[in-house]
Specification:
Structural class: alpha+beta
Helix content: 40-55%
Order of helices and strands: HEEHHHHHEEEHEE
Number of helices: 7
């Protein structure tokens, strides 16, 4: 009965208002000044039914990411992890040392990445990766009129609009969907950066 109800909601695209209001818990990072709110990590709380419904949709996004995102993206990827990327960097460094070549690595940290992805950009990326159009339309409708509140020591703040947010921090679909956006950067780096060569294979990037 619960599954059928969620399917009916997704098909009709008439979502409960509770799904459109998220609450942010601003967690402190170790060693940071607690007075600097901008340095806190925003953890978003969403209704359980929304997370279950979103989980039902993740398969299509995972398929698109698996088929279209370059293999150098190891985050939220089956059979890939940080140690594997570390090993690649270590092999790169040791090879350069043996050949007395320069070794240059750029680390880029995309702050508030998930929450900064715009819905319009996300829709274009999904279309480019061949995501089923109806699914993209469901996601756009699900996040139409989105608003948020933040938890403080004095209670919840007033609601604020988040109409442009596509990938909520903590949303079940966000890991796979965000990789579709990151792939644009990966393809650009692969095209314009020469990268290090292992034999005939160039490795311009590691994520």
């Amino acid at each position: 009965l619960y599954y059928k109800a969620l399917c009916d909601v997704l098909r009709s695209r008439e979502f409960p208002q509770e799904w459109k209001s998220w609450i942010a818990f601003l967690a402190m990072k170790k060693g940071e000044d607690p007075r600097e709110l901008g340095r806190r990590r925003d953890l978003w709380l969403m209704p359980h039914s929304l997370k279950v419904a979103a989980r039902m949709l993740t398969g299509e996004f995972e398929r698109a990411a698996w088929e279209g995102v370059p293999g150098s993206q190891a985050g939220f990827t089956k059979d890939a992890n940080a140690p594997g990327q570390t090993l690649t960097l270590r092999a790169h460094r040791e090879r350069c040392r043996q050949r007395r070549q320069g070794y240059y690595v750029l680390f880029a940290d995309y702050g508030t990445f998930f929450m900064s992805i715009a819905k319009e950009v996300m829709a274009k990326c999904e279309a480019w990766h061949g995501v089923t159009p109806e699914l993209s339309e469901v996601m756009l409708a699900m996040q139409d009129g989105l608003s948020g509140r933040a938890e403080t020591a004095y209670g919840l703040t007033d609601e604020f609009k988040m109409e442009g947010v596509a990938c909520g921090q903590g949303h079940e679909c966000s890991p796979s969907r965000s990789k579709l956006v990151i792939s644009l950067i990966q393809h650009a780096v692969s095209k314009f950066a020469r990268g290090y060569r292992f034999g005939d294979v160039a490795v311009p990037q590691v994520y």
